[in-house]
Amino acid sequence: MENHKAQPLNRKYFTPGVWVLVALAVNGLIFLGFRFYGGIGSVTNLNQQYPWGLWIAVDVAAGVALAAGGFTTAALGHIMHREHYHDIIRPALLTAMLGYTFVAIGVCIDLGRYYFVWHPLFMWNGTSALFEVGMCVMIYMTVLYIEFLPIVTERFVGRVHLPGLFKVLNRPVDSLLRFLDRGLHKTMFVFIIAGVVLSTLHQSSLGTLMVIAGPKMHPLWQTPILPLLFLLSAVSVGFPMVIVESLAASRSFGLKPEMEVLGRLGRLVAPLLGIYLAFKLGDMFIRETFVYLNEFTIESVMWMLEVVLGVVVPLRILLSRKATRHRGWLFTAAFLVVVGVALNRINNFIVAYTPPYAQARYSPSIGEISITVGLIAILILLYRFVVINFPVISLPDGSRISPAKYAIRGAPS
Amino acid sequence: MKLSRRSLLQFGALLGVTIAGGGRSARGGPKNILSDDRMGVLVDTTVCVGYRNCEWACKKAHDMSTLPIETYENRDVLGQFRRPNLESLTVVNEFPSDKPIPIDVKVQCMHCDHPACVSACIVGAFSKTEKGAVIWDSDKCIGCRYCMVACPFQIPAFEYNKPIQPRILKCDFCVHRTANEEKPACVEICPVEALTYGRRHDLVKVARERIRKHPARYVDHIYGEHEVGGTSWLYLAGKDFKKIGFPRNLGNNPAPGVSESIQHGIFAYFMPPALLYALLGSIMWMRRKINHEESASDGKP
Description:
The structure holds 2 protein chains of 2 kinds. Chain A is mostly helical. Chain A has 14 helices and 2 strands; from the N terminus they run E-H-H-H-H-H-H-H-H-H-H-H-H-H-E-H. Chain B is of the alpha+beta class. Chain B contains 9 helices and 9 strands. A 3-stranded mixed β-sheet of chain B has the order 8-1-9. In chain B, strands 2-3 form a two-stranded antiparallel ribbon. Chain B is elongated and about 95 Å long.
């Protein structure tokens, strides 16, 4: 097998596509300004009937689900020790880290009193599903940053060159990095397992969130096994997200896609997706909610879209060995799974929510959409910045002359 | 090595533990810490005639802006269906009836015995007092609005247009008045005595007695006696409650019930997470060993 090594990509940061993202980000930030100046009501369509909207459904719920690649690849690569998959762990970790960071930012934007976001750390309510989600997300985010630290130390050990007056700090910073590197090497397994446990906990608890809404939620989605469905769908969307992101990155940076690894990963998705579908349909038949599919409503259409387009079609594609070797088919299938799970979160948090005294159905405002799109644009921009400057994406050795970590260490700085 | 029944099995085991954790139906509902002497209000909608003095008194008691009481004689607003909101914590709605006079229904927080908002609140800003009131603590609230998602009666209202310190507003059962042995403002002002303030246990008896004495006047149902596990505010009416603005299909189980069972199942003394951690740790250790042996037998350098 070719010897791969993660390394910073030698690419220009700004391209026409990047400028489009910058424009979207700026647009989002302008609306964000209004939100903090005039309150949530000034930019959103939220009201006394619909307390949660696009930001909770997409920025938070879908964001957490789509960041599941972090813990699923960690489970596969580190816990199951599948060496084949090591190349994709770092990109997945980076996506998860940035993803959760943006979930946290999304939460803060949506909170009426964002400056009290730390309250749950000290004011506990064990019966609250949201409390559990909040605590787990906070701890998991810390774990993700710790898991990312070795990438930082690898990049900078022996290469700390602070400008001007800060020069005196070069040696202490370098020693600190070396100390971290040694310590982390020995203890990383603790964090890796913790990351997987924390993920299973809050991925499922996100589903528990809406259980308390009871009859306010459309029966197509309201079920006591919501936490299980959320966990299963998060587990099935982890690898597809890694595939989509890896194929998109290789196109954007003009790299050769790692079809070998990604195809294997794609074949792993089929059984996971199958289990999810089985539980989803089984629940439907036990609760006999299929009667609602007879009606032609927004709910029934959205349910069909979510399940057929987001689960059945990609499942069919991924069951074909030939399709998983084909870049286009693999991308299509993985992308559909991602869309399907995102749709599921939107359905659970927006479409299914029917308050008893609703006057008009909620639909997101331009401001809400702008802020969400802006956040996603910033996320992609940060991703690009990190992979250009840190060893995240693996390239075959020798494609770029990059001094090995340990060679540099001995060298006088 | 190819993928692999074994890794799937391991994934299965991983899922199994979580499922087992999630599916464990532990104790449902919160522990009942309710005082037997908790208070309540009995609303007799057959007595109410829609003077709306309660709306005025409520605003006065909570320092909210209001027009003079005379303006409340205007009965036009009764025609629109209104909900408690930021301007008024209680409203009266009018519904057509088979009898000559229409039915007027006062709406406010029901002060559940097992409140969904108390269970849901991420920081425990809601609490059920010993006297029966469900109250909100501004010092804790972070403005997440999960209480609004949880409330089966769609009561809490949020100040969306305040960038700093937006509040959750809802009827607080006049805790500042009842602490001084005063009646809630709405009860005190009601000119026709449609509202009765008293021990909830007594009110249920009073309500039963009224139904027994006037079977033609009332439907045989005390709304709030059992709904969502019981509420401090109780209603009597001459017409099916579903037709006079009460939410449908609420059931008699406490609103937080299922959600809390799931939470307690997953977090039963932190056992399921700890077990999962141990399981993953052992898989990691085993797999590492297998990997070492494999690479050794492959004779790799």
